[in-house]
Design a protein that fits this description.
By secondary structure, the chain is α/β, with parallel strands linked by helices. The protein is about 40% helix and about 20% strand. It has helices at about 10-15, 35-45, 55-65, 80-85, 100-105, 115-120, 135-145, 165-180, 190-200, 205-210, 215-220, 225-230, and strands at about 5-10, 25-30, 50, 70-75, 80, 110, 130, 150-155, 185, 240-245, 250. The strands form 2 sheets. It has a 7-stranded mixed sheet with strand order 9-1-8-2-7-10-11. The protein starts with a strand and ends with a strand.
Length: about 260
């Protein structure tokens, strides 16, 4: 049976998932700049788990219950500070370069971001939820190919309420890989659109991404501009990141 591949481009589309039966569906969530890239990097550097939450208040509640967790996240791209929490400074922002082994090895990280955590929560009820990025693109494609799902849903976290070019490019790159790794595919128009966007841009992917709204915003901050180049590294980490039924993300042991 051919795998039906569908891409969702905006938050409005993934919010509507609550009305769909996702039990036969494998979901891949992409928030290239930067949440999913950061989660993958944290796991690669030894983090025990990532717990994504939608609101700052949820993160603070988990810290009260589990004082050993690290708090991470951003609002408008910047690390969450005491002004937004009533006095608690988050340990980490949302830059993957912060999540070194010295800081995160063996730790559970509670993270709240603007769009990425919302996209992950929208997949509740799916057969399987994978966390994707350019950093682990091939490993993610291989994990999908091993399962040969009936339906694959690629979810772009977007920017604000709109589409994000970098996520669409990553979705297209994944669709292009799957065209050769799955036994048979049945791409919906949305998947074909994403793939064509990627194929057109792949000769100068950094140049294409620099035009994206998220990238322009990050490039304007001296402390964050290197995140753009970091997140565009293809296949830096040979790991699969998967979210369990409770929403906790861990490195998957592949056998």
């Amino acid at each position: 049976m051919a795998c039906s591949i569908e891409v969702l481009f905006t938050p409005a589309e993934f919010r509507a998932l609550c009305d769909r039966d996702l039990k036969p569906t494998v979901c891949v969530v992409l928030d290239v700049l930067r949440a999913t890239s950061t989660f993958v990097t944290a796991l690669a550097n030894g983090a025990a788990a990532i717990i994504p939450v939608a609101e700052i208040s949820e993160a603070l509640k988990l810290r009260r219950e589990r004082p050993d967790v690290l708090l991470a996240g951003e609002r408008d791209g910047l690390k969450i500070g005491a002004a937004l929490t009533g006095g608690v400074e988050f340990d980490l922002g949302n830059s993957p370069r912060e999540f070194t082994s010295v800081k995160v090895a063996g730790k559970t990280v509670v993270s709240t971001t603007t769009n990425g955590t919302r996209a992950l929560r929208a997949c509740a009820g799916a057969r399987r939820v994978l966390v994707g990025s350019f950093l682990n693109l091939s490993a993610t494609a291989d994990a999908i190919a091993r399962r040969q799902p009936e339906h694959l849903l690629v979810i772009c976290a977007g920017t604000g309420e709109g589409a994000a070019l970098e996520d669409v490019l990553a979705a297209g790159a994944l669709c292009d890989l799957l065209a050769s790794t799955l036994r048979a595919t049945e791409p919906q128009d949305s998947a074909e659109i994403a793939r064509r966007v990627f194929l057109r841009a792949q000769g100068d992917l950094p140049g294409a991404v620099r035009q994206a709204r998220n990238a322009r915003r990050l490039l304007a901050y001296a402390d964050l501009r290197d995140d753009v180049e970091f997140c565009l590294q293809k296949n830096r980490f040979a790991l699969v990141a998967a979210s369990d039924a409770a929403g906790t993300i861990r490195k998957e042991i592949c056998g």
